[in-house]
C-alpha cells in the first residue's frame, strides 16, 4: 500500500524523519519495501499482511505510528449535526448472512466538477486516477479510512429502492418480477451473475456487484444532480468468491475480502458526505441504516503467565494491559488472567497467540531475550510407529514399487469412476468450502483414484512397467466436528506383456500378492489370509479381501473390465492390479519383539493332496480347515495348484495342497505319517463335501 508521509502527519503529529518512521514501522511488523520522493513528499510502499486489513488505510498506518512513537492519534470529526430531511429511499437486505449492515445517504443538488488539486494530488500519489469530485471523494475516503464506499446517481435508481441479495434469493422472494441477472459494470463489460453472488438491486435490475464494482447505468457523471452514497459490510468469503469467479479485482474487493470494519462504516459515510457538501455542494439527507446482525466481540480468556511463556519474557500484568490499551484493544483484568474484547477492526485477534504478538510488537522484538530453544526429544530416536512405517516403505521398495505422493483431495466424480456404491462408507465425503479447483473439492476417502491418475500419466508417456505405492491418510465424515482419519497403504501394478527374450507367465495379481506377503514377513505378521472380495470395482475371481488375525485389513485385485473401459486407455483392457490396506490396523498388530525358535532337530515329511470342491469354496477356507485339525504334527500348509478344465465337472475346481509334518521330539515314521494324513484327508472331505482327485 502507498502511504504519503504528508497525509500521514494529519493523523499523528510526529517530528521524526520519513526514514525513522519507515524503520519503526518495519520493526512493528509493517515492512516498508520502498520510499519514493513525489512532489516534495515521501511516499512509503508498505507491505500489509493479509490478516491486517485495518492497516489498508492512512488511518490504520497512523494508528501504528501513534503507538510506536507514543503520540496521540487525531481523527477527523465525522458527525453531521443538526436536523436533516428524511430520505424517501428504502433499503432491504435479503441475505443477512452475507450482508450484516447496509447504510446510505441521499445528497441532493450536487454540482459535479473536477476535484480540488489537493485531492487529485493525494490520489495520484496513491496510484488512483481522478474522475470527478464525487467519485474522487469516495476513493479518497477509501484510502483515508480503509472502508470502501460507492456513489450511485440517485435518479437512475428505479423505485427509489435498494435491495441487497443473491439472485436466487431475490428472484424467489419477488416471483412476479422481471428482474434480470445481467449487469454491465463500470469497466464496460456485461456480466452474467451466478445465483450465489451478492448483488445490489433497485426495484427492477441489479445496479452493482456488491463489494466489487458498480454498474455502468447508475454511475455518477457530469449530469448527475442527486447522489445515493453507499457504505456497507459484506462477508469476506462472499466477496472473494465473486471476485475470483468474475476475475474482477478492485480496490473495494481487495479490502472487503480481507474484512472491513462494520462499526466504522457510518463514520466513513459521514466523512464522504461532508466532503461532498463542502466541495460539490448539495443537501445531506438523514441516514438510512439497516443493521440486522450486530457485531458482538467474542471475549478471549488469557492467562498472564501464558503470554510470558509464549514470548520468553517477564512483562508485568500492568504493562501488558497498558500496551493493549494503547493499541485500542479493550481488556478486563481478572486477577491471574484477563479478558480481551477484540474491536470490530481487529477480527484477526482470536486466541492467546494473537494477543502475544500484539504485545511483542509494541514491547519491542529487540527487548525479547534470545535463548536456545529446548526440545522435548530425549533420545533423538524415531517413535515406534514411524519406524514401522519406514519398514513398510522399505519392504515395498524391495518388491520393486516406487513411492508417490498425492494431494489429499479428489474430484466429486472420482468415486463414480471406480463405481463405489452410494451406500458405501467411502461416500461419506468432506466437502472443502473454498477449493482451488473443482477437481480437488473433496477430501479423499480412498487412495485408489489418485493412484489410477498416476498410472494414466505414466502410461501416456510410454512407461510400460508401473509399480507405485502411497502411504497417506483418508478422511470420512462421521457426523462430528472432526472427520475420521485413517492411515492407508495403497498401490497399483501394471506390466505390459510385450515379447521378450524369456517368457514369464506369472500374473500381476500374484506378483502384487507376493509383494504384500513379503511386507507381512518383514513386519513379522504371520496370521493373515486372502479370501474372495466383494469390491464391485474389482474383477470377479481375481480379487481378494485381506484379513489379519481375523480382522478385515484391505483388498487386492484386478480392476474390472467396465472400470478399465471408463479410464479411456489407448491400450485395450490392460491388467491393472490395485490394493489398499488399513495401516492403522496393521501397525497395532506388529509384534513388539521377535521370538526365536530352536532349529528343528528332526526332519519333516511332506505329503500332497488334491481335492475337487465347489467353485465357491476358497483355498483359504480349506487351509483354515486343515489348521483346525487336532494334531500338533502339522507344521505348514501351502497351496501349489488351482485347476479348472477338462476332467473337472462344471462348477467345480481342483485345489492342491502341500502339507508338512514334523515332530519336535522324534523322527516320524512312514506309518505314523500315513495314518495321520489319511485322517486329515477324511476330515477335509467331510468338511468340504469334496472328493479326491486321482
Describe this structure in words.
The chain has 694 residues and is α+β, with helices and mostly antiparallel strands. It has 5 domains: 2-69, Phenylalanyl-tRNA Synthetase, Chain B, domain 1 (2-Layer Sandwich); 90-290, Phenylalanyl-trna Synthetase, Chain B, domain 3 (Phenylalanyl-tRNA Synthetase, Chain B, domain 3); 300-366, Phenylalanyl-tRNA Synthetase, Chain B, domain 1 (2-Layer Sandwich); 384-589, BirA Bifunctional Protein, domain 2 (2-Layer Sandwich), CATH 3.30.930; 605-692, 2-Layer Sandwich (Alpha-Beta Plaits), CATH 3.30.70.380. Helices cover 30% and strands 26% of the residues. It has 20 helices and 32 strands. The strands form 8 sheets. The chain has a 7-stranded mixed beta sheet with strand order 19-23-24-28-27-26-25. A 5-stranded mixed beta sheet has the order 4-7-10-11-12, covered by helices on one side. Strand 25 (528-532) and strand 26 form a beta hairpin. Helix 13 runs antiparallel to helix 16 (508-522). The model has no long low-confidence stretch (mean pLDDT 91).
What is the gist of this entry?
This protein has 694 residues and is of the alpha+beta class. It is built from 20 helices and 32 strands. It folds into five domains: 2-69, Phenylalanyl-tRNA Synthetase, Chain B, domain 1; 90-290, Phenylalanyl-tRNA Synthetase, Chain B, domain 3; 300-366, 2-Layer Sandwich (Phenylalanyl-tRNA Synthetase, Chain B, domain 1), CATH 3.30.56; 384-589, BirA Bifunctional Protein, domain 2 (2-Layer Sandwich); 605-692, Ferrodoxin-fold anticodon-binding domain (Alpha-Beta Plaits, 2-Layer Sandwich), CATH 3.30.70.
Amino acid at each position: 500500500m502507498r502511504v504519503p508521509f504528508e497525509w500521514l502527519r494529519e493523523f499523528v503529529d510526529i517530528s521524526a524523519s520519513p526514514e525513522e518512521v519507515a524503520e519503526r514501522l518495519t520493526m512493528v511488523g509493517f515492512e516498508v519495501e520502498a520510499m519514493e520522493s513525489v512532489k516534495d513528499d515521501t511516499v512509503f510502499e508498505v507491505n500489509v499482511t493479509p490478516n491486517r486489513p485495518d492497516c489498508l488505510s492512512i488511518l490504520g498506518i497512523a494508528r501504528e505510528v501513534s503507538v510506536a512513537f507514543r503520540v496521540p492519534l487525531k481523527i477527523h470529526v465525522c458527525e453531521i449535526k443538526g436536523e436533516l430531511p428524511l430520505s424517501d429511499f428504502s433499503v432491504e437486505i435479503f441475505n443477512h448472512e452475507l450482508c450484516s449492515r447496509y447504510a446510505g445517504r441521499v445528497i441532493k443538488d450536487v454540482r459535479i466538477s473536477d476535484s480540488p488539486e489537493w485531492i487529485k494530488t493525494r490520489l495520484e500519489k496513491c496510484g488512483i486516477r481522478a474522475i470527478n469530485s464525487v467519485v474522487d471523494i469516495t476513493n479518497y475516503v477509501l484510502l483515508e479510512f480503509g472502508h470502501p464506499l460507492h456513489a450511485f446517481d440517485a435518479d437512475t435508481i428505479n423505485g427509489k429502492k435498494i435491495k441487497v441479495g443473491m439472485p436466487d434469493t431475490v428472484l424467489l422472494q419477488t416471483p412476479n418480477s422481471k428482474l434480470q441477472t445481467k449487469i454491465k459494470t463500470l469497466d464496460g463489460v456485461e456480466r452474467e451473475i451466478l445465483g450465489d453472488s451478492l448483488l445490489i438491486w433497485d426495484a427492477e435490475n441489479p445496479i452493482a456487484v456488491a463489494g466489487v464494482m458498480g454498474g455502468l447505468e447508475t454511475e455518477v457523471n457530469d449530469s448527475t444532480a442527486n447522489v445515493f452514497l453507499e457504505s456497507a459490510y459484506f462477508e469476506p468469503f462472499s466477496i472473494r468468491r465473486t471476485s475470483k469467479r468474475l476475475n474482477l479485482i478492485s480496490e473495494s474487493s481487495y479490502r472487503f475480502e480481507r474484512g472491513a470494519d462494520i462499526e466504522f462504516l457510518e463514520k466513513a459515510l459521514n466523512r464522504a458526505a461532508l466532503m461532498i457538501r463542502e466541495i460539490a455542494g448539495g443537501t445531506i439527507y438523514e441516514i438510512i441504516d439497516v443493521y440486522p446482525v450486530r457485531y458482538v466481540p467474542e471475549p478471549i480468556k488469557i492467562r498472564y503467565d501464558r503470554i510470558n511463556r509464549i514470548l520468553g519474557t517477564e512483562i508485568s500484568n500492568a504493562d501488558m494491559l497498558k500496551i493493549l490499551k494503547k493499541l485500542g484493544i479493550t481488556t478486563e483484568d481478572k486477577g491471574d488472567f484477563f479478558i480481551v474484547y477484540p474491536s470490530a477492526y481487529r477480527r484477526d485477534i482470536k486466541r492467546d497467540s494473537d494477543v502475544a504478538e500484539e504485545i511483542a510488537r509494541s514491547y519491542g522484538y529487540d527487548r525479547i531475550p534470545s535463548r536456545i530453544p529446548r526440545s522435548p526429544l530425549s533420545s533423538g530416536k524415531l517413535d515406534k510407529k514411524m519406524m514401522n512405517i519406514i519398514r513398510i516403505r522399505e519392504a515395498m521398495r524391495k518388491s520393486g514399487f516406487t513411492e508417490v505422493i498425492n494431494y489429499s483431495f479428489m474430484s466429486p466424480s472420482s468415486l463414480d469412476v471406480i463405481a463405489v456404491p452410494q451406500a458405501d462408507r467411502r461416500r461419506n465425503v468432506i466437502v472443502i468450502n473454498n477449493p482451488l479447483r473443482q477437481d480437488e473439492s473433496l477430501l479423499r476417502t480412498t487412495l485408489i483414484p489418485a493412484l489410477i491418475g498416476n498410472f494414466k500419466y505414466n502410461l501416456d508417456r510410454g512407461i510400460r512397467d508401473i509399480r507405485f505405492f502411497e502411504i497417506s491418510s483418508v478422511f470420512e465424515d462421521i457426523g462430528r466436528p472432526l472427520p475420521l482419519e485413517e492411515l492407508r497403504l495403497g498401490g497399483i501394478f501394471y506390466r505390459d506383456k510385450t515379447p521378450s527374450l524369456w517368457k514369464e507367465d506369472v500374473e500381476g495379481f500374484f506378483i502384487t500378492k507376493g509383494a504384500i506377503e513379503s511386507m507381512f514377513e518383514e513386519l513379522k505378521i504371520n496370521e493373515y489370509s486372502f479370501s474372495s472380495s466383494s469390491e464391485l470395482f474389482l474383477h470377479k475371481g481375481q480379487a481378494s479381501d485381506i484379513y489379519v488375525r481375523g480382522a478385515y485389513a484391505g483388498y487386492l485385485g484386478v480392476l474390472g473390465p467396465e472400470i478399465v473401459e471408463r479410464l479411456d486407455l489407448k491400450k485395450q483392457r490392460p491388467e491393472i492390479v490395485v490394493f489398499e490396506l488399513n495401516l492403522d490396523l496393521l501397525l497395532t498388530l506388529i509384534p513388539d519383539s521377535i521370538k526365536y525358535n530352536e532349529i528343528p532337530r528332526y526332519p519333516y515329511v511332506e505329503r500332497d493332496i488334491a481335492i475337487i470342491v465347489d467353485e465357491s469354496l476358497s483355498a483359504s477356507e480349506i487351509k483354515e480347515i486343515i489348521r483346525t485339525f487336532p494334531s500338533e504334527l502339522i507344521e505348514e500348509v501351502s497351496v501349489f495348484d488351482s485347476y479348472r478344465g477338462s476332467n473337472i465337472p462344471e462348477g467345480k475346481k481342483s485345489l492342491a495342497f502341500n502339507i508338512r509334518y514334523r515332530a519336535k521330539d522324534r523322527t516320524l515314521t512312514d506309518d505314523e505319517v500315513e495314518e495321520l494324513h489319511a485322517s486329515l484327508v477324511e476330515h477335509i472331505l467331510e468338511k468340504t463335501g469334496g472328493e479326491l482327485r486321482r
